[in-house]
């Protein structure tokens, strides 16, 4: 029995040392802002006399989460809230578990979902106006392509600033980013319709534009499930 306990202690020590080494490697890959976050959090946990072993286990999970989210331009503060909030959670919690980051798909998936969403929406609105007015409402081929392209980037920006749990001022930034992005998108679409020569921007009949919009919406819902796209607006 004593030998078994000793063996378990040795395995635990090896696991602890391995995580310490891994934590150092992960920390070096963080951005300066994320490194600063972890340094401040470590200081808060030291002040609360949290054991080195528990900190190592906590930081191992956190560092992996933060590093994986850096590719999506997500900071440690966006994921876990302020240093004070996260320290309070860890110190007063009943376990060493950490909050899971907001799950978000790869950038290209968010762009694809956004392109189909805004591109489809604009196409449907244009197509409907064809049936509700006497004008030959429709979109030019080049304008339609730009609509989908720019719509994808617009949604990427809006998603980037979507409110995160525990982040103060997040909602205000989201409203500002959404407003500016939508204004820029609408203005670019309006200018493109007037400035692009008709020879490279032949008009698509409104009825066809409506069909394209409906197909775009259907493709959005299908691909969202097919590609398991997460973190989208809708």
Task: Please render the helix and strand layout as text.
Elements: H1 2-28, H2 32-47, H3 52-70, H4 76-80, H5 83-92, H6 107-132, E1 138-140, H7 141-160, H8 170-195, E2 203-205, H9 206-226
Antiparallel strand pairs: 1-2
Describe the protein:
Keywords: Membrane, Transmembrane, Transmembrane helix. This protein is an all-alpha fold. The chain folds into 2 domains: 2-92, no CATH class; 107-226, no CATH class. It is 73% helix and 3% strand. The protein has 9 helices and 2 strands. The protein has helices at residues 2-28, 32-47, 52-70, 76-80, 83-92, 107-132, 141-160, 170-195, 206-226, and strands at residues 138-140, 203-205. α6 crosses α7.
| Average pLDDT, all residues | 80
Whole-number radius of gyration? Answer: 25 Å
Strand content: under 5%
The structural domain count equals 2
List SSEs in N-to-C order: HHHHHHEHHEH
Anisotropy-based shape = elongated
What is the straight-line distance between the termini?
Answer: 57 Å
Structural class call reads mainly alpha
Give the biggest beta sheet: 2 strands, antiparallel
Helical run tally:
9
Number of strands: 2
State the low-pLDDT regions, or none.
1-10, 94-99
Q: What percentage of residues falls in helices of 4 or more residues?
A: over 70%
Strand order of the largest sheet: 1-2
């Amino acid at each position: 029995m004593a030998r078994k306990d000793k063996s378990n202690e040795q395995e635990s020590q090896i696991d602890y040392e391995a995580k310490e080494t891994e934590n150092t490697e992960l920390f070096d890959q963080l951005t300066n802002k994320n490194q600063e976050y972890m340094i401040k959090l470590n200081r808060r946990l030291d002040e609360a006399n949290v054991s080195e072993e528990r900190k190592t286990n906590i930081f191992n999970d956190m560092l992996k989460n933060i590093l994986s989210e850096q590719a999506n331009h997500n900071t440690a503060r966006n994921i876990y809230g302020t240093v004070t909030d996260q320290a309070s959670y860890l110190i007063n919690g009943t376990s060493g578990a950490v909050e899971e980051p907001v799950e978000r798909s790869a950038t290209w998936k968010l762009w694809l979902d956004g392109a189909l969403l805004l591109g489809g929406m604009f196409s449907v609105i244009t197509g409907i106006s064809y049936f509700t007015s006497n004008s030959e409402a429709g979109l030019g081929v080049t304008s339609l392509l730009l609509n989908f392209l720019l719509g994808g980037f617009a949604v990427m920006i809006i998603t980037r600033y979507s409110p995160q749990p525990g982040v103060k001022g997040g909602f205000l930034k989201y409203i500002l980013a959404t407003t500016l992005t939508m204004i820029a998108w609408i203005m670019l679409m309006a200018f493109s319709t007037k400035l692009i020569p008709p020879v490279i921007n032949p008009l698509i009949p409104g009825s066809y534009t409506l069909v394209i919009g409906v197909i775009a919406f259907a493709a959005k819902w299908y691909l969202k499930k097919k590609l398991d796209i997460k973190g989208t607006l809708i």
